[in-house]
Amino acid sequence: MAAIGNVGYNYLGASGLKVSNICLGTMTFGTCKGSFPVFECNTQLDEKQSHEVLDKYVQLGGNFVDTANVYSKGKSEEIIGSWLQKQERDRIIIATKCRAQMDASDQNSCGLSRRHIVQSVEESMFRLKTNYIDLFQAHAWDNGTPIEETMRTFDDLVRCGKIRYYGFSNVCGWQLQKIVEFAKYNRINQPISLQQQYSLLCRQSEWEEFMVCKNEGLGVLSWGALKSGFLSGKFKRGEKPSKTQSRVGFYNADENVAKQVGLAVVWSDYNENDAYWNLIDKMGKIAAAHGKSIPQVAIRWLLQQDVVASVIIGATSIKQLEDNMGASAGWELSKEEMSALDAASPRMSYYPYDFLWRLNGPDRYNQFNRSIKL
Hints:
It is built from 14 helices and eleven strands. By secondary structure, the chain is an alpha/beta fold. It has a single domain, classed as Alpha-Beta Barrel (TIM Barrel), CATH 3.20.20.100. It is globular. The protein starts with a strand and ends in a 15-residue tail after the last helix.
């Protein structure tokens, strides 16, 4: 990992593109009433606040900004676009996504059809005020569209220069392998990244999706690093988070809203969970030993996973941004600390994954085979 100042840089998958190992996620930019609870939270930032966060992020050494057309129904992209006009465009790596329904009155304004992808690219470029997108991503798998149609559309967009690279997000193992194989055997441009939820509280993708990434040279962009705040260390057992001071509190003011969000952010699921509080305690002790914060430990654990190219962090204040960026470079968790966090992190054993991992332990590791290192 190379570093500029106190920020680390990695290649994004098998491509020649270098990105800062902390990516600024912009789901907190802009508000949109009546769409999805995430975009109505009172911690959402207006344009001025968003620009201040973007300015500070670049000042700290970051070069990688992630958004999506669905974030506040296009307002996030618009905010980035007005900021981008004041920047040296070629120095900023812009990633966005498509898949979600953008117009409830138009049945074709969703999915991964050629029609919707091309329309989404054009609309995103307009909102972002740019004539190309560095990384364009499918936000999730689409059962309604043949993968051949989706893949050939991405390849065409790369060939004509409207997007530089493409990737996928929120897919399972067989889907990702199918994506890679189609690109490989049809000799088209290959995806370079997988954006997937990954944290000390969400490790399911280690079983299969990340094995595909290692075998096939895709870089992981991990989202949900702090699990909507559950890995921030700021909550106390038995004290329900405040509605006005955190996303978790906002969601859980009405538990039905928390369930609708669908990201495992229901307070009652954690409040009486001894394993969760043990993990937070372990993180607190490790943080104190390094003179760091609990969120920095959560992010650093991700950065030391060799499949991760960049960790996507959201920020609702300059202070929060600076703290999160402090995980980027200049210090490391020891092998013993990584092992302690692994042991404390709740993990479920699923057949056949647990069975296969036992059979393929360290004695079956071949350094010349690009497979997961146990």
